[in-house]
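Journal club prep, notes for RB
We'll compare a predicted complex against what the paper describes. Inputs for the molybdenum atom case:
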Amino acid sequence: MSNWLASLRKGYGKKLHALHAWNGWIVVVLTISGLMLFGGFWRGILGEGRVWLRWLHIVVGIASLLPVAYYLLLAGKHWKQLRGKAAQRANVIVVLALLVGWLLSGLLLWQFRLIGPAWSNGALLTHDLLTWIGLPYIIYHSITRVRWLKEEPHRRTVKSGKPEEAIHPAASPGAVYSRRAFIKTAIGAGLAITIGPSFLRWLGNSIGAGTSIEKLVESDANKLLPVPQPLPASLPPTGGGSRGSFRVYTVTPIPSFDNSNWSFDLDGLVENKMHYNWEQFVKLARSVQVSDFHCVTGWSVYSNTWEGIPLKQFLREAGVKAEAKTVKLYSGDGVYTDSLTLEQADMDDVMVAVLHDGKPIPNDLGGPVRLIVPKMYAYKSVKWLNRIELIAEDHTGYWEERGYSKDAWV
Ligand SMILES: Nc1nc2c(c(=O)[nH]1)N[C@H]1C(S)=C(S)[C@@H](COP(=O)(O)O)O[C@H]1N2
Ligand SMILES: [Mo]
């Protein structure tokens, strides 16, 4: 054994203790920041803070490599010490596997631009799955390890150090559950009840077995009439039906619309300003395209069949003035905006979409009308789109103001 390793192992017990504590705090910080990043609820509240929180999560996540590496140096001795303690050995392996799995999938997610959507999808799935399994495990582990649960009350008075059984040979004979086992079971059941349903929902959606898009369509709170009738290319969907599921993202409460509060404007530096109500809007000629949808946070939905009005067509009809440089996009939520350069807006597949897989886009997913920019990350795909303005200057959109790149190419 080299000298430095020997010196490293000096005061081993204390070091192991400190390591466990450090690791615990790192997990707490990563859990809280991770859950806040995951939860749709926090998106609106955090705003710009989300970019900072994401950085904190990444930096602390990478820092978690330190206690893991340090532990591995001490692991040999610890392992011997745990001889005959199968449960504790298993615990060490589970926790190490969790930490390494989170770290690796997290690194991939951090570098999502390098690895492309397919890999980052897998990484996100792994990261989330580890969280669904690992977090309840760690919570259970920490609760059941606190001292008052580890020791039966009468045992605390025993000073001899002899095993409990030797002193209280008849301690609760015949009792199937000791108090401790009962509390542990209760904690386990409590966790299963609180976390189980959301886990199953997530699992269903991730595997694609869930009918989540259909459910969203069913619970659509928009009430716009007449209902747009799909083109033959849209129903049945040319793309064969989308694969994957959308995570409902919003920075505001989710709005809903009816004929009285919905309208669509095309204005700014154009020859013919346009104002449509819903009855007029559904009469516009639409076309159909099949494309993939990628969010920068790592998830994608493949082979979406979108039906709508190509942005190009709108701009041609409105007549863009020579001074115009930027297409500014407004959401009916009153907060979210983004923009495209005229050149980007001229791409054939940029669409003001009205139907997804032959059905009206539900309000959760940005309906009745949302933008689709297949070649760019989905933060360009403004939900509840209700105004397009041509402007002479630049515009920095909602997420771009908060650190996202203006260059959103997939
Ligand atoms: N109005 C509005 N549009 C938005 C967003 C938003 O928060 N508000 N989020 C964007 C982001 S980051 C993504 S990934 C997609 C998500 O679309 P979905 O909620 O339909 O899955 O919408 C984009 N358009
Ligand atoms: Mo996104």
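Talking point for the session: Strands lie at 263-268, 274-277, 287-294, 300-310, 326-331, 337-341, 351-356, 359-360, 370-372, 385-391.
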